[in-house]
Amino acid sequence: IFESVNLKVFFIFILICLGSDGVKLMFTDMLLIKAKKPPRQSV
C-alpha cells in the first residue's frame, strides 16, 4: 500500500518538475519506444 502511494507521489512530483513540455516529451518518447520495431541485426 505504502509503495503504491509513494510511487504516485513521486510520479506527480516528477510531472510538476518537468512541466507540460517535459510531460509531452516523455509521452512522445514512450510512444516512440513502443512504436519502435526491434533493431535489425547488422552483420
What does this entry look like structurally?
The protein is an all-alpha fold and 43 residues long. The protein is 79% helix and 0% strand. The protein contains one helix and no strands. It has one helix at 2-35. The longest helix has 34 residues, at 2-35. The chain is elongated, with a radius of gyration of 15 Å. It starts with a helix and ends in an 8-residue tail after the last helix. The mean pLDDT is 75.
Number of helices: 1
**Computed Rg:** 15 Å
First CA to last CA: what distance?
A: 48 Å
Mean pLDDT equals 75
List key phrases describing it.
single chain; 43 residues; mainly alpha
Produce a short descriptive summary.
By secondary structure, this protein is mostly helical. Helices cover 79% and strands 0% of the residues.
SSE layout and pairing:
Blueprint: H1 2-35
